[in-house]
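name: query_chain
kind: protein
chains: 1
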Amino acid sequence: MTSMPPTPTPAGPQAQDKSVGQLLSVITSDLQTLFRQEVELAKAEVKEEATKAGKAAGMYGGAGFAGYMVLLFLSLAAVLGLSNVMDGGWAALIVTAVWAVVAAVLYQRGRTEMRTVSPKPERTVETMKENAEWARHPTK
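structure:
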């Protein structure tokens, strides 16, 4: 036995038209989804910038520790070596001045790296501005 095909529903303009309330509901739902996605994008951007900041902080820490160890052992060797040709106090002062320059250079490099970290999610801010402009003038 063969089944009968489904009976067609009237396809007039009233069956296909949605009410204004339904359209507003769809638009509201779409806007909520859009803003949720923008928030997720902002979170991802902040996480990315936090990772960069963490790397820069790690560089500061690594430079500090390496600088300390180098300062300790090379300073001792340099003071002992220089004390063969001059007074020990002057040898220690010269070595201290050299490592002060090294510390300043390491600090400057860390500072330069930290300046590349952006505190705000720039792409999200830009797309949110575009979304707000579109919401104000959707036909443009």
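note: The chain has one domain: 19-133.
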